[in-house]
Design brief:
Chain A: InterPro entries: D-isomer_2-hydroxyacid_DH (IPR050223), D-isomer_2_OHA_DH_cat_dom (IPR006139), D-isomer_DH_CS1 (IPR029752), D-isomer_DH_NAD-bd (IPR006140), NAD(P)-bd_dom_sf (IPR036291). The complex is a heterodimer of chains A (282) and B (271). With 282 residues, chain A is an alpha/beta fold. Chain A is 36% helix and 14% strand. Chain A is built from ten helices and ten strands. In chain A, the strands form two sheets. In chain A, strands 6-5-4-7-8-9-10 form a seven-stranded parallel beta sheet, with helices on both faces. In chain A, strand 8, helix 9 and strand 9 form a beta-alpha-beta unit. In chain A, helix 3 packs antiparallel against helix 10. The longest helix of chain A has 20 residues. Chain A is globular. With 271 residues, chain B is of the alpha/beta class. Chain B has two domains: 62 residues, no CATH class; 184 residues, Rossmann fold (3-Layer(aba) Sandwich), CATH 3.40.50.720. In chain B, 46% of the residues are buried. The chains are: A alpha/beta (282), B alpha/beta (271). At the A-B interface, helix 3, helix 4, helix 5 and helix 10 of A face helix 3, helix 4, helix 5 and helix 10 of B.
Chain lengths: 282, 271
């Protein structure tokens, strides 16, 4: 059976692609990943077997950008907290305790201005937010102007000014623990951290400490390390944390588009044509 | 006056012979009998525009949270029983979907501005059509008949004020016209929706979900069916509940009161 397999469509990191699997599939030509992140794959190993790899970058950008905005809004307007108050058997609460923070006019700092980061900027602009961004490279002037975004070459400058810090980078050795103790200390004590990239981009222990000591105000995390977190993890108990189960790209439409992109890549690889979204080991 | 307290009736007005002005918090004045107050020579003010962006922001928050199942998702993420996240757990996409705004006043329009950035298709129903430039700026299409809006929308957002004409504007008939995959979002007043009809529609899957910042009454009785439904998000009337806005509201109310007491024209007077 192994000899018949020419393509793998990887859904949610399964099957695990290791040396064993690759050796048992001598005719494997392509692995198409559902989603855009490739950090769970050993790209060099796969390439060494002559197997091409592809991701689905276009399919997930809108839904993931929507998730970033949803988390920002839900966190600052205390949605989970107040919904629980609304439905709880005892309606005791103080008006002043459920006030949120105004989004319109606040400063959003986007770390990672790729397709997803840029879509977030487009959305945030409509909320009249002031937008800063940090990226490996600066975007073109017209792109910056369209969303009114200001480039921060140094991440420090973004961290010091932002009311909301949105992390939208891909996970690489360079972005591993990009947000650690130092970065959290640079953030305003009234700021909220939103992570829609990968859990490992944030130093989770440092985050817990910052949230517990008031170093930052709140966090909203669609991704953690691991997923799910152990049930006794401090993040699960903090009132000022919203955690969602990696739902960034989990919509009916995105699932459809992901599969379409994967199939496009697989068919191209099997026909010996260039892949629409090939990923190479860096 | 905050949150409709104290209740202004004939009894109260008779016991306050020197009452000159009632400054009401927020924009809605449906809880005030304007004719009665006028007959006692009492002036009324509200705080109409300051609440607009926060209320529009909350409308967007409810739409995003509902469609992506944020509350449910958070519960799953923190529940002691969760061992893994199911691969087939999906929400509905907001980007590119159709939003129908019922009531295109200041708040409705701000919702449209925000929704446009999510590449949503925007329909609106209003007593009168907006100017062409206003429509083009947000790409909104006028639906003279509410039915057209209800039949095409993935999200129906209510942003009307409460008047005798808008009471129970959304009833059994309107809910049945909505798509079975649609979500109702209410940031106006509880009474704009026939709540019993809404409960039935949700229970029979006539519509998919609801997200309500307002109900009737507020708060709902603790045994009300809406509190138990998984596909319903309820928030405690927090449309304007941000620190900055509440501060400005207080400033505006104080300003109106001072003007009223000094016999000057009252800013934001409601006639």
């Amino acid at each position: 059976v192994g000899k018949k397999v020419q393509a793998i469509y990887l859904w949610w990191h399964k099957p695990v692609v290791n040396k064993d699997l690759l050796q048992n599939l001598p005719n494997l030509k392509v692995i198409a990943n559902s989603g855009v992140g490739m950090d769970h794959l050993d790209l060099k190993l796969i390439a060494s077997f002559g197997v091409k790899m592809a991701n689905a970058p276009r399919a997930v950008s809108s839904s993931t950008a929507d998730t970033g905005m949803a988390l920002l809004l839900a966190s600052t307007r205390r949605l989970v907290e107040v919904h629980n108050i609304s439905i709880s058997p005892s309606m005791e609460y103080c008006e002043a305790d459920i006030l949120g923070v105004k989004v319109t006019g606040a400063t959003l700092g986007i770390i990672g201005m790729g397709s997803i980061g840029y879509k977030i900027a487009l959305r945030a602009k409509a909320f009249e937010m002031n937008i800063l961004y940090h990226n490996r490279t600066q975007r073109k002037a017209e792109e910056e102007q369209t969303v009114g975004a200001t480039y921060c070459k140094k991440i420090d400058s973004l961290l010091q000014q932002a009311d909301f810090v949105m992390v939208v980078v891909s996970l690489t050795p360079q972005t591993h623990k990009l947000i650690g103790k130092r970065e959290l200390e640079l953030m305003k004590p009234t700021a909220t951290l939103i992570n829609i990239s990968r859990g490992a981009v944030v130093d989770q222990e440092a985050l817990v400490a910052a949230l517990q000591t008031g170093g930052i105000e709140a966090a909203a995390l669609d991704v953690t390390y691991p997923e799910p977190l152990p049930r006794d993890h401090p993040l699960l108990k903090l009132k000022n944390v919203i955690i969602t189960p990696h739902l960034g790209a989990k919509t009916d439409k995105a699932s459809y588009r992901i599969t379409e992109e994967a199939v496009e890549n697989i068919l191209a690889a099997l026909s010996g044509l260039p892949l629409p979204s090939e990923v190479f080991p860096s | 006056m905050w949150y409709h307290k104290p209740v202004i009736n004939e009894e109260l007005l008779q016991s306050l012979p020197n009452l000159k002005v009632v400054a009401s918090s927020g924009v809605g004045i449906d809880h005030l009998d304007l004719k009665l107050l006028s007959s006692y020579g009492v002036k009324v003010s509200n705080t109409p525009f300051v609440v607009s962006t926060d209320t529009a922001d909350l409308g967007m928050t409810l739409m995003l949270a509902s469609s992506r199942r944020l509350v449910e998702g958070h519960e799953m993420a923190v529940s002691p029983d969760t061992e893994y996240f199911p691969a087939d757990w999906l929400g509905a996409e907001v980007s590119g979907a159709t939003l129908g705004i019922v009531g295109m006043g200041t708040i409705g329009y701000k919702v449209a501005e925000r929704a446009k950035a999510f590449e949503m298709k925007i329909l609106y129903h209003n007593r009168s059509q907006r100017k062409k430039e206003e429509e083009s700026a947000v790409g909104a299409v006028y639906c003279k008949k509410i039915d057209d809006l209800l039949q095409q929308s993935d999200f129906v957002l209510l942003a009307v004020n409460l008047t005798p004409q808008t009471q129970k504007l959304i009833g059994k008939r309107e809910l049945e016209l909505m798509k079975p995959t649609a979500t109702l979002i209410n940031i106006s007043r509880g009474l704009v929706v026939d709540q019993d009809a809404l409960v039935e529609a949700l229970q029979n899957e006539v519509i998919k979900a609801a997200a309500l910042d307002v109900t009737y009454p507020e708060p709902l009785p603790r045994d009300h069916p809406l509190l138990k439904m998984k596909n319903v998000i309820i928030t405690p009337h927090i449309g304007s509940a941000t620190k900055k806005t509440r501060w400005i509201m207080m400033e505006e109310m104080t300003e109106s009161i001072e003007a009223g007491l000094a016999g000057r024209p009252i800013p934001r007077e409601v006639l």
